């Protein structure tokens, strides 16, 4: 090869290597630029995501949700409760944020939180044990109340503008009930649609105190707040239903309503629940007077023998097993008694005018107790 050809070949190789190096530099520049854009984009997206997660779920929300924070709850547990109730957007962000700000010593208790509250507002409330927003008014619904009484209680408030009749019309509306059953599928089952049920939502409006943050809450808002409270208190006990042979939530609520109306104290509620289960197991009628009064549709100080003949699926002197549905709402410890009865061999009980309850294993013993503590007082 001549010197001239060798020189040309060398120049071509140098030129080619230069072009390759230039291409590599361009590729590296493009990759670095892309990575930089990605990193910057990710940083901005991350910042916006975290910023959004710290903001209220719905700044315009006015309705509140009742949240129960159990004693000894960890920050992770509290984050889970808040997320489950749709009060925060992200559990992990809540945990990291409270840890970064060294927020701790959250107080156990029952809170009324709204989706319009920021994480700072939520944590401040949890630290002090106080709700930041004060309710405009509150209504206490005692235990043992029938739905017609509950309707009257809300209608009588100066902060509502509907009648008891309008409340009951909405509570009995088939289309509205269908929507509620979709909203609360584990709580409201087809049992409430039985044609012989007097009021579909009887027993399902929980005895509690309800806070409201606006004038004239709708009937729907009130009913749904009460159903949510019932669900919060009933569903945790679902695993215990099968152990007792109670097939449905409806039956559990029905049993709780009977215990509520029969037993004056928490101790007696568990004992009476045990009696009821003993009678169910023995295929005996429950024979509880409050179901007769509900069947009659009126209050009486004393149930007469002729009253026991009332023809009704609620009358437990005439039907075996549980009545067709609840006869009132109930206290939480009545529900606990229904699902955690006291075991015994008692098959009968009788209560005197002072509310003292006497228990018997046999019918003869029951008659003696009745004669001693009831008939002697008349």
In short:
This protein is mainly alpha-helical and 378 residues long. It has 14 helices and six strands. The mean pLDDT is 84.
Architecture blueprint of SSEs:
Blueprint: H1 3-54, E1 64-69, H2 75-84, H3 91-100, E2 109-114, H4 119-128, E3 137-141, H5 147-155, H6 164-171, H7 174-183, E4 208-212, H8 219-234, H9 238-244, H10 249-262, H11 266-281, H12 289-296, H13 332-339, E5 348-351, E6 357-360, H14 363-373
Antiparallel strand pairs: 1-2, 3-4, 5-6
Helix pairs in contact: 2-3, 5-6, 10-11, 10-13, 11-13
The counted number of beta strands is 6
User: What is the oligomer described by this structure?
Assistant: single chain
CATH class of one domain: Alpha Beta
Report the C-alpha radius of gyration, rounded: 33 Å
Order of strands side by side in the largest beta sheet?
Answer: 1-2
Q: Largest beta sheet, briefly?
A: 2 strands, antiparallel
Q: What is CATH's topology name of one domain? A: Dna Ligase, domain 1
CATH superfamily of one domain: Endolytic murein transglycosylase
Look at the structure and give the mean pLDDT.
84
Which range does the strand content fall in?
5-15%
| CATH architecture label of one domain | 2-Layer Sandwich
Structural class, judged by helices and strands? mainly alpha
Approximately how much helix is present in the residues? Answer: 40-55%
Low-confidence stretches: none
Estimate the global geometry from the Cα principal axes: elongated
Rounded to the nearest angstrom, the distance between the terminal CA atoms is 138 Å
How many helices? The count is 14
Give the H and E element order. Answer: HEHHEHEHHHEHHHHHHEEH
Protein name: Endolytic murein transglycosylase
Keywords: Cell membrane, Cell wall biogenesis/degradation, Lyase, Membrane, Transmembrane, Transmembrane helix
Family: Belongs to the transglycosylase MltG family.
Pfam families: YceG (PF02618)
